[in-house]
Amino acid sequence: MKKTLLLCFIHGFKGNDHTFGPNQAFPTHLLSLLRPLLPKLNLEFLIYPTYETRGDLTDCVNRFRDWLLNKVIDLEVSLGTPSPTVEPGVRVILIGHSMGGIVAAETAISIASEQAINGSIPNNGNSPDQGNMKAPLNSLMFPYIQAVLAFDTPYLGISPGVVAHGAETHYSKAAEVMGQLSGLASIWGGASSNAAKENHHQQRQAPQKAIEAPPSTQKQQQQQQQQPDQKPQTGGSGWGKWGTLALAAGAVGAITATGAAAYLKREQITQGLTWATSHLEFVGCLARKEELRKRVAYMMRLNKELNVGFGNLYTRLGKSAGALEKVSMVGTVLGDERTFCVVPQRDQAGDWRPAINDKARDETWAHMSMFEPKENPGYDKLSADARDMIASWVNQEWYESSTETIHA
Hints:
Blueprint: E1 4-10, H1 25-34, E2 42-47, H2 57-79, E3 90-97, H3 99-113, H4 130-134, E4 144-151, H5 160-205, H6 218-226, H7 239-264, H8 266-281, H9 289-306, E5 309-317, H10 319-322, H11 329-334, E6 351-357, H12 363-368, H13 379-393, H14 396-400
Helix pairs in contact: 1-13, 2-3, 3-9, 5-7, 5-8
Organism: Podospora bellae-mahoneyi
InterPro entries: AB_hydrolase_fold
Region (Disordered): 194-238
């Protein structure tokens, strides 16, 4: 029986069916790269339909698992597999982008152990229950998960640089705008101040009158008594009055113009912070560091005991990042390598490989444009790395047992 390797793609936060390229471009391309390396297998892919990336993560995982189970059962039936739970004819590679990688990892863990990592750590921050980590794993997984391949999934959290670099950039822009506003204010305010000085100077230079002003008439006295707060008109150019109005109008106009510019640039201005906080809104799992660590540790256990592959192709900014500014305070503190994900430094976390984007100018855009060849010069390298990782994870004994079905 010719066996099937099923690649199942899962989009991330607010993603959809087009996350992996228009017209299923990336999955189709990846299969074309894999076929020469795995000629004995039937290669297929599925894209999990658009789902709500909100609410409880465990519920989301359960819905995906049920959907996957039905799809694999249909494939096993079509293959005529005698005992799919003992010797499956279909093995699955779960492929997730961003938060989709966490859904994939949670699914693999729940199938292998009937346990969920999400919500397993008390809110008081105590250490995780080590007993759960030592519970026996189910080697007869169904569906059988051969590997979990992630694309820029923040398994260990979102890099602080995503927010810090964005904030630094926005601060620089804000400082520039405020400088321009200060210049406008000095023009208006300076004109008004000069006019006031001129008016004051004229009043001081005016000669003293030799003859007293004639006494007010009774009618004029009555009008003055009815309007005690009204100030008498002064001489001079009159700029003091109109200058105040012009200053107010200039300030309003400047603020309006700045607000309009900010509105037109709202996507760029809020891009980094919005994506970071939006991921946290998806049940807040990225904010629970102990759960993140435990999830990765559990995937490493699946890798060691059940030979389940685990890897992450994470984005890293290339040449364009250095062109933004010569000196960056954030870069000095956080380092030169700008990534969307926190990258493991010491602990084992699987096969993590950088996916460098020399065109992207910030971490968020690199994260969102991974599967767009026009926006990601490293698209071919990304595809080749994904191909090699998947091919290396395929169990050789299972692969060699795949044979062409000969019909009588």
